[in-house]
Amino acid sequence: MAGANNEQLVELDTSDSIWERFYTVFPLVVVGTHEADGSDDLAPKHLAMPMSWKNHFGFVCTPRHHTYQNILRDKQFAVSYVRPTQTVLASLAASPRCDDGSKPISQALPTVAAEKVKAPLVEGGYLFLECEFEQMIDNLGDNSLIIGRIVAARVAEDALRDVDQDDGDLLMASPLLAYLYPDRFAEIAKTTKLPFPAGYKR
Ligand SMILES: Cc1cc2nc3c(=O)[nH]c(=O)nc-3n(C[C@H](O)[C@H](O)[C@H](O)COP(=O)(O)O)c2cc1C
């Protein structure tokens, strides 16, 4: 089939997951929760984003993961937006569990405790959200959408927008991490202002 620019388009088989067939841009965050015994649990998530302009945050998770079970039990979680220098750390948080169900990597990674919820945050990230669980949408294939209300948020000083600083310079000095599912990442430093239509309002 020919596309709008007469490029050849390839029809994808929608009876299977299409997302491994091409690259597209996702964020990468680490979700922190507490296990049933009160120890820390960390897991990277890329299907994760704000769910409203009123400070809701949501991410997709499978009910098989402890993250899902921990949130269902404790009704709270924390989110760390990691920097491009922290990709190894974020990826390690997906280390498989031991035969006894434990996940020692969650205790080995550098964390600080969230302040308003009982959950770990990843040290050195640039944005930290503390969330109280609000709702769950189950049966999205094997997955569920977990939505929380942000009850505390902190941003690293170098990542905070400032009227006295050019936004392009800010991102050049403090680049962002983009996850290119399934297996690549990029550091975003060089950016350009988006052209909005005249009179545009959100
Ligand atoms: C880069 C990366 C991104 C991931 N994104 C997600 C995601 O968006 N949703 C999800 O359910 N699992 C995702 N995972 C897999 C889980 O984070 C992983 O299986 C984790 O170990 C589950 O841990 P838990 O049992 O402690 O919750 C991702 C893994 C990696 C390496």
Structure description:
The chain is mainly beta. It has one domain: Electron Transport, Fmn-binding Protein, Chain A (Pnp Oxidase, Chain A). The chain is 13% helix and 37% strand. It contains four helices and twelve strands. It has helices spanning 66-74, 87-92, 105-108, 167-173, and strands spanning 24-26, 29-34, 40-45, 48-50, 56-61, 76-81, 111-113, 120-122, 127-140, 143-155, 176-181, 184-188. The strands form three sheets. Strands 3-2-6-9-10-5-4 form a seven-stranded antiparallel β-sheet. The protein has a three-stranded antiparallel β-sheet with strand order 1-11-12, with no helix packed on it. A hairpin with a 5-residue loop joins strand 2 (29-34) and strand 3 (40-45). The chain is globular. The relative contact order is 0.18. The model has no long low-confidence stretch (mean pLDDT 96). The protein binds flavin mononucleotide. Residues 28, 41, 43-47, 60-62, 65-67, 91, 94, 103, 179 line the site of flavin mononucleotide.
Task: Summarize it.
By secondary structure, the protein is mainly β. It contains 4 helices and 12 strands.
Task: Give the topology, please.
Blueprint: E1 24-26, E2 29-34, E3 40-45, E4 48-50, E5 56-61, H1 66-74, E6 76-81, H2 87-92, H3 105-108, E7 111-113, E8 120-122, E9 127-140, E10 143-155, H4 167-173, E11 176-181, E12 184-188
The structure holds flavin mononucleotide.
